[in-house]
Specification:
The complex is a heterodimer of chains A (457) and B (195).
Chain A lengths: L3 H9 L3 H23 L4 H16 L2 H14 L3 E5 L2 H14 L4 E4 L3 H5 L2 H7 L3 E4 L2 H8 L16 H12 L8 H18 L2 E4 L3 E3 L5 E5 L3 H7 L3 E7 L3 E2 L2 H16 L6 E5 L10 E5 L3 H4 L16 H5 L1 H4 L12 H11 L1 H4 L11 H5 L6 H11 L8 H15 L1 H10 L7 H4 L20 H12 L1
Parallel strand pairs in A: 1-10, 2-3, 2-4, 4-7, 5-8, 7-10
Antiparallel strand pairs in A: 5-6, 6-9
Helix pairs in contact in A: 2-12, 3-12, 9-10, 16-19, 20-21
Chain B lengths: L3 H11 L20 H11 L2 E5 L6 H8 L6 E3 L25 E5 L2 E3 L4 E5 L7 H4 L2 E7 L2 E2 L2 H7 L7 E5 L4 E2 L7 E2 L6 E7 L3
The chains are: A alpha/beta (457), B alpha/beta (195).
The structure holds iron/sulfur cluster.
The site of iron/sulfur cluster has 14 residues of chain A, from helix 14.
């Protein structure tokens, strides 16, 4: 039995040139992250603080949500509460409808992806324009993001060039990234100028002041909200943090972890509607989060600040791509959030982990991603989705590992298997696929160790 | 529709243990011996051009030197005589489309990342983004890191502020870095000692 991820990954790996390029590209981002992280002697302390602040905020989130919404209302902002995706979409649509808004420009938001907001609004006659370049490319080509920070990085400049030739009438054969970016800029400029409403997600919501804080490199969140008359911000309730002192910790970590920059180009703080503009709206979304808070094993996934570092470092992500995962967020954090969302539907992703734990070594909020994936795997049986063949083998292994004498006998004889690779490494052994058969030593480790100790004496 | 109470109650019901907030007293963040020097080099890394001036009298000449082809300059700063548009008095945000150089004031700089704190001071803040090129005139006031920076930020009644670190950028096409995605395509800082 193969998992949904392993089947998709196999397909991804058919084009080895592409897979190698994909791996190199994301590893390059990881390397940039390291360079920036190591420049700060306090880096590990920052991660500890970030984790502790998130743990504190999440376990007092009732209080901070009150504070945040009160502060925002005091700023003249209308605060809405959505228990799920459906309510969120309805709220946004109603705000737009009551302002007779026909065109919405928006910056990147994983929350609106989570709620499938764009199709909902489009079916109701609203034109939605993504303004992050990567998101815009995908929107023009009707694709979903393959990464949460670099959504279109799986495409080459030729892919993008062809999409633009088709959709934006760019010069045939001119696939130069600078030219293509400029053409997208011109076309998006028109959208900003003619939009009725602008929407952003939120990297952080500040309880003390009611700010929505958005970090971008392109300036598209600011273009989206400083030109149209109506501003809406969507925020998952776990994004609330106490105050600016806390924010200072997270902004130092976010861009360094995400793309290896000391800061994003824009760190924007939205408190109030612009002069002359309509009332500003903030929609706070639950959609499962309040429930996850009560999960003693997995609630810390809510600490995630969506930097994408766990994807860039993950060998499985790098060698299988974002589309191999069945949840809309890929990589280590996506595996975990998918399982929180619906373990039966998304359990096909938990195999996408080697338990190397590189993810939790880089996560700026210290989410213990790999450990949690391991825990999900242990629970697979309770969802009735465990791999039957592997289960049988594990039973056999339990027998061996539980009985010291059997284990010792087995390791002492293991080298006999060396000549019998094809027998062990065959289609009946589900772990053998794509794994090289190891060479067992003549002397088992225990014996070697004993001999070493003897020799030293 | 759900109410605030429904959602907050559900959160409260699921909180098992309330954890305390850490202090940052033992964080010991990096501080620089010469924050100004670090700020200037870091701003350049972020793609800024950095100019020094003795007084605001020099600002127009610097704009002319850096952007010789600029036709439309927008600013509400009284010493920017070359400005033909004022973001404080234009009818709407759209009116600033086509501006070649927007000139604004920044309050202070941050050494660790080369960003400057900009507090909205004009009616149409899109001057910071929609202008092809952005010039920020600022005092030689620099803090080392974002912890210090968030101790310094101030807001007025406009209720908007932004840290800006260089021109708008993207690497969304094949990870190739391109300056000038949706907002300003270049940024120049003009540092003036006692502004
Ligand atoms: S889990 Fe950690 S590393 Fe992964 S996206 Fe979230 S914050 Fe970043």
């Amino acid at each position: 039995m193969s998992t949904s991820h392993s089947i998709a990954a196999k397909k991804f790996l058919e084009n080895q040139t592409y897979a190698t390029w994909h791996d190199k590209t994301f590893w390059g981002v990881r390397a940039k992250r390291d360079k920036l992280a190591f420049e700060l002697p306090e880096w590990e302390r920052l991660r500890d603080k970030a984790s502790a602040i998130k743990r504190h905020t999440l376990t007092n989130i009732d209080m901070y949500l009150e504070m945040f919404s009160e502060a925002a209302e005091k700023n003249g902002v209308e605060v809405h509460w959505a228990k799920d995706a459906q309510e969120f979409n309805e709220i946004v649509f109603n705000i737009l409808k009551s302002h007779n808004a026909k065109k919405l420009v928006k910056s990147k938001s994983m929350l609106t992806e989570e709620c499938r907001m764009n199709p909902y609004l489009e079916e109701r006659g609203i034109e939605v324009v993504e303004t992050d370049l990567g998101e815009r490319i995908l929107q023009l080509d009707h694709q979903d993001p393959s990464h949460i920070v670099m959504p279109a990085t799986h495409l080459s400049h030729d892919d993008v060039g062809e999409i633009f030739e088709r959709e934006l009438n760019t010069e045939k054969g001119n696939h130069d990234p600078t030219y293509l970016t400029y053409m997208a800029r011109l076309s998006l400029r028109d959208e900003f100028l003619t939009a009725d409403a602008g929407m952003t997600g939120a990297n952080f919501g500040i309880a003390a002041t009611g700010d929505i804080v958005v970090c971008t490199n392109e300036g598209n969140a600011d273009m989206s909200t400083s030109v149209p008359k109506l501003q809406i911000a969507a925020i998952g309730l776990e994004k609330i943090i106490p105050d600016y002192e806390a924010l200072s910790v997270f902004v130092r970590l976010l861009a360094r972890s995400a793309t290896g920059q000391p800061s994003t180009v824009y760190t924007s703080h939205f408190r109030k509607a612009r002069p002359g503009a309509d009332k500003m709206h903030i929609v706070i979304v639950d959609n499962g989060r309040s429930q996850w808070l009560g999960d003693p094993q997995h609630w810390e996934s809510l600490k995630c600040i969506r930097c994408g570092a766990c994807m860039n470092t993950c060998p499985v992500y790098r060698w299988s791509g974002g589309y191999s995962y069945s949840y809309f967020i890929p990589g280590p954090i996506g595996i975990n959030l998918g399982m929180l969302r619906n373990p039966k539907e998304y359990s096909g992703n938990v195999s996408a982990c080697t338990l190397c734990l590189s993810c939790q070594c880089v996560c700026p909020a210290k989410v213990d991603l790999g450990t949690q994936i391991y825990k999900w795997r242990q629970a697979l049986d309770s969802y009735g989705v465990a791999n039957k063949e592997k289960k049988m083998m594990v039973k056999g292994m339990d027998m061996i590992f539980d009985h010291l004498s059997v284990y010792n006998a087995a390791t002492a004889c293991a080298h006999f298997l060396n000549g019998m690779g094809p027998l062990v490494n065959n289609g009946l052994n589900p772990w053998a696929y794509a794994h090289k058969m190891m060479k067992f030593p003549k002397k088992p480790f225990h014996k070697q160790f004993e001999d070493m100790e003897k020799n030293e004496k | 529709m759900s109410t605030k109470k429904d959602i907050i109650d559900r959160c409260r019901a699921n909180i098992r243990e309330r954890l305390i907030r850490p202090t940052l007293t033992d964080l010991n963040p990096t501080v620089y011996d010469d924050p100004l020097e670090k700020f200037i080099s870091q701003a350049q890394v972020m793609g800024c051009r950095v100019e020094r001036a003795k007084s605001t009298d020099e600002v127009d000449a610097i704009i002319k030197k850096v952007y010789p082809d600029a036709k439309i300059v927008a600013s509400s700063l009284p010493y920017v005589k070359s400005a033909s548009l004022n973001p404080d008095t234009v009818p709407d945000a759209q009116a600033l489309n086509g501006v070649d150089v927007g000139v604004i004031r920044a309050e202070f700089g941050v050494a660790e990342n080369g960003s400057v704190w900009v507090m909205q001071k004009v009616k149409e803040r899109d001057v910071c983004f929609i202008s092809e090129n952005l010039v920020a005139v600022m005092p030689e006031h620099v803090v080392s890191n974002m912890h210090e920076a968030y101790g310094e930020v101030s807001f007025n009644d406009y209720g908007y502020g932004v840290f800006i670190a260089g021109p708008s950028k993207t690497a969304d096409i094949a990870q190739v870095l391109v300056m000038g995605a949706q907002a300003a395509r270049s940024m120049t800082l003009i540092l003036i000692p006692d502004l």
